[in-house]
Fold each of these.
Amino acid sequence: MSKNVNPYKDSTLGKKAQVTQMFDTISKNYDGLNRVISFGVDVKWRKKVVALVRKAEVDSIMDIATGTGDLAIALAKTGAKKIVGLDISTGMLEIGKQKVRQKKLDDTIEMVVGDSENLPFKNDSFDAVTVAFGVRNFENLENGLKEIHRILKPGGLFVVLETSVPTKFPVKQGYQFYTRFILPAIGRVFSKDRVAYRYLSESAAAFPFGEAFNNILRKTGFIDVENKPQTFGVATIYIASK
């Protein structure tokens, strides 16, 4: 199970409330900082997720922890008739809604406020569910995965894109230096929230990745589980079914 890492160590709020507060605070800078922090490679990773979903030929998609909607918008290229982008942060969603309107995708993409651990949808509602850089922010990882399993149709596709930790020299050492010192420094310079990017690196380091996360997916009911490390292992794409 993942270690529970919270954004604000002195806060009396639970992780869910802290994560909401953090993303509301950094929402205006989030997209630009993501491009800088990942050197733009996150765009390439999302394209791989879209390709996997397109291959499945689905009509309905739920993108959980959609943030400002980058993945939800990219998923429109799959030809799905209905895409729901869900996030707990209204600040992130407002930016996402603006982007959806600019792309003239209002008829396809609906952006909704919601809790990943208590999804406001019936059982077996979606052909595919995606989460990009969001599962490590769940307050209770297994509860969130069980909810995703519940709303996914039998035979449906579940794809997760999440950070992971490289295990081979010298990439491992370079990754540790970057996430421990460089990433928080970039966050302090460009973001109003001085602790947000420290949390993002700490939560990535604490999150179970690879076979550990595969096992949690299986435990929560998913089948045909596999993982595909990306860019020397700094991120991983997980694929599963119901």
Note: The two ends are 21 Å apart (CA to CA).
Amino acid sequence: MTATIRSVNDDVRNIVLGVIATAFSGGFGWFSRTYLWRRALRRKQAFFGLPTGSDCLFVVNRQMGGTDSSLHRNDAFALLEISSLIKDCGANVQIVTHDGARQGFGERAEFCVGGPSSNARTVAHLASMLPGVRVIFNSESVPDRGAITVGGETYRWVKGQVEYVLLARLTTGRGTRPVFLLSGQTAISNQAAARYLAKQHRALARTYGGDSFCVLLKVINSDAYGPDVTELVADVTRQARTPVAEAA
């Protein structure tokens, strides 16, 4: 009888210990996942300059060849890609047209989409923060229309085969919010840059931290693959931030 009671007590003790171990393991796993998720979120918010509850600006361009209020569908897709990032950070977005964003930068994060031929604010950002970049944005069908020149190299657009886009994170000093510039030769290259930013922001944050950068991306055979096949051509930060006269 005594042996039976001792056996029952041992079984109960083992069950209790098993429950405690399971609860501890589950609680530790939950804590670890929560800690890692929060750390990743803080890093993401720091990179994009989007703390919880903050406001940011999304500057949309107009469709090349269209009216001032028209937006190419691929630029709309770029808006969706970036809006998802903003939502993940718990921030609020204000969407303005390129010719209606008459304000400075640094007080809140900004995403500016479109090359200088379709976005007047891109023209201002290139002139003030990336003076080493030259873009031919003549509205006429000239041979080098849309060509990007930086660091002495010229990158030409071949319709449906090769398209280039500059992706930049620009700040004016420590503590200021960044401007993300996606200046492509086409709407599909703008979308490709937005998708690249969404997928590679962790790698970009590890490489550059909170510093400014400018990279050149190439979209390959967009007629067949859309914005999905995109490769990094070069880091052109130094060349883009050096005025052309000084570089010469």
Note: Helices lie at 2-48, 73-88, 120-129, 187-208, 222-225, 237-241, 244-247.
Amino acid sequence: MEESIAIINCPASWLNPPPLSLIFLERYLASKGKKTKLIDLNIEIFNLTSNSKKDWLKLNKDFENNIFSNLKKNHNPFLKNFINSLKPYAFIGFSILKRNSAFSFALADEIKRTYPEKKIIFGGPQTLFLDLQNQIPKTDYWVVGEGEIALDNITAGRAERITRFDEIEDLDTLPFYDLSSLNPGATYNCAPLLSSRGCPYRCNFCSERLLYKKLRCHSPQYITEQIIHLKKQNKVTNFVFCDSLINYDDLWLETFCRLVISRKLNITWQAQMRIKKGFSLSLAKLIRMSGCVNLFIGLESVSDNTLKAMNKGYSKNTAISFLSTLKQAGLQFEISLIIGYPKESETDFKETYDFLKTSRNLIPKIAQINPFVDYLGHYPNRSYPNTQGKQRVEKTLEMIQAERIKYTSSFINNLTY
């Protein structure tokens, strides 16, 4: 029992695709001979309660803070049975995000009251922010960064209370995974993939750049074999890459696409892609031939002043050329926008606003529009999102509605409470 661990994904968080980071942890620890149980409590409680999908996914502090108390009040037998089911495990691990932190901490406290001897481990993105703010409590185990090596060491008694950025060098040494450890017998219409960890770029607003110390990549051959494994085990042909970007290396992307085509995998896939100078039409066409059905592009702005302030590393002209190449290749894509970035002038905002208004034939869809949120605390004496940023988002939304430009309504202001 000394090296047994239950890893829990708590509400509220995304319902689809499944939590890939936890699947990696379960497979890695199992490969080390450790009794490991992965529990997607998020989907279990969503199915148990009468909450709508819209409420579950929308940012709402009161809702998130009350999920645990409501569960205890209305479904206490379920909660007690769940805690009782954890008896065989010496370690209990939680992956905490901003949205599920309140539930995770409350459940951890309940587990400690029932089983004082159990050791609690907290990992996930939110541990990074707690660490940056010197707010990690002086109890339990904490993992900042990826968790495979850290959990292996903690459960073997080889780790300090806080582990920071103990990263796997060769990602191809990781065992292949399938989705059976989450819900045995369940079927999925989409399977998650991760071809890399980290990002070589340093956009000033982005918190993802802090989650890893360096970029590491699986080989195209490994990812191809992983896809074949998921097709066989889970009968799935639709995949979504969870990477920060899929085009960190054009040669990698070309090799992957050619492997998918030559091995006749007959899959569909989608990913996030970065705007880059010199992106070729031949590669864009190859991406489409390999089964790509959608790309999420972080455009953010078309003002050169704002792009420079964001440290995006490209210009308006580069962005237009890149999007034009995707369009010419027949690729479906959608863009995201950040409005009201610090020092964004009215002229800068208007440049992006006017571009959207006149680019219906270039941009198939706007996926996401948000005011700038200061996640990293770069502006401690100012409040972001501010009123001006919110107003500019509303003005942009009114325009795209009037112009009948396609957009995803649930991704407007979806990063702000």
Note: The mean pLDDT is 95.
